[in-house]
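step 4 of 6: structure.
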Amino acid sequence: MNWVWQNQGTIFNEDKTTCTLDQPAAVEAFQFLQDLVIKHKVAASASDLADQEESDMFLGGRMAMFFAVRGNLGATCKAKFRFDAAVSPMGKVHMTTTAVGPSVLWNGSKNKDAAFKLMNFISSPDGERLKIKDTGFAFPSIKSLTEEPWFKSFQCGKATGTGINPAFSTEIANDWVRTFPLHPKWPEIDQEITKQIDSLFLGEKPAPQIAKEITAAVNGIIAKQ
Amino acid sequence: MAVPAIEPAQREHWRARRWTLRENTAGWLFALPWIIGFVCFTAGPVIAALLISFTQWDVVNNPVWIGLDNYRQLLKDPSAHQALKVTTLYTVVSVPLHTALAFIIAIMLNNKLRGVGLYRTIFYLPSILPIAAIAVVWRWVLSPQYGIFNYLLSLGGIDGPQWLASPTWALPALILMSLFNIGGAMVIFLAGLQGVPRDLQEAAMVDGANWWHRQWNVTIPMMTPYILFEVVMGFIGTMQVFVQPYLMTDGGPKDATLFFLLYVYRNAFQFFSMGYASALSWVLFLYVVVLTVGIMRSARFWVYYEGQKG
């Protein structure tokens, strides 16, 4: 969805009652992605992706760039070559996908106080430092941590210089990231989009048709009781 | 007052009853762990799934009774139809091929060849490997660009297919993969072949039957109970295939490998539609039961039991 968002497209309308992936901005983004794969052959094809994940292709020297969140650094730091991270390329606007891993406390828990205490620690500056400082996993949820020296000088394997963490904090600080929308049927919708995107990567149908089919299928899921 | 003497026959009767009771009790006690396990972990969940299938339940909130709505939804759900089609197609092609290949290999390995033990081990080996490991290896074997299959095809000047990346070839690729796991069936056929009477083979030989005639008219008829067993077990097993598509294709591309169980899993643990997933499970269960009964009924036309009359 990076491409759609960078092109100022959206997945849903404001109140998430209708899919908007058939709108011109999204269709244009789908076309751009399809062209990267089929016409220009510079992005991973369906057969490439059947072999390996993008991050594995990068580590194996088969892919030059891939979209990543800081959580990917854990594996990427093991790269046997020099590499770096940068802010995602810009379309009409800067926008890239991120993911949030919330901690949830169940209201039926027998040990609410202890659970709350643990959650409190995990999300405290000390807890986040402990979790993130020496690893390539997760991104601080506390903004001030991104200004601390340990974060700014994080050395990730053979990464060139120490600018790797700031690439991610720049995107977040500038609000250039977006998570997938919160929708009660998102898992089902996501599955449907993934299925239809296969046609895009295979070049079986033109992008506008795929966009139309995705939209119809997603609207069908939304309409379902 | 004198106590009437117990007749020896009556005493014997009571002794026999006590012995039977003791035997029965011991039998039930031995079976008890299995019975408890079956009731708690198989029958219980199966009945619970039936009840859940009449509800709308997202696991977190209380289930809401919706009667047959899940079953009605299933009738018009294209993904469920696709899943049933894929699973059935996989079963119909893979089970006969799998059984035939295992049978042929078993016949070959039933000869007194030099190093036959080694060959048997080699053919059996894939059966004891974890399916997850096999799936990972096969992803590489079937790699369109770097896989050994396409490399071998390229030696013959053939441009290999995209295998798992192709909606046309993904299912045949999984069928092909299933054929390399014939060890279990092969061992059963090997055991069965030991029981084919040599005198029948020799009699046929005396009558002038060649190798092929002996297999067709003696070995295969004598082996039909084993073939039936393998077909039924293979059928039930393949209707429940999950790990391979889950790890190798995630049902794609374009639902070409959307197996029924994978769709059940998605509904239960990704979409949190536990009621609908239970309805799907029950439909699969009934589908398997009906077709299994069909196979068993067909047995009277092609399975030969030595002990049977006629």
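step 5 of 6: annotate
 - The longest helix of chain B spans residues 8-52.
 - DSSP finds 13 helices and two strands in chain B.
step 6 of 6: archive
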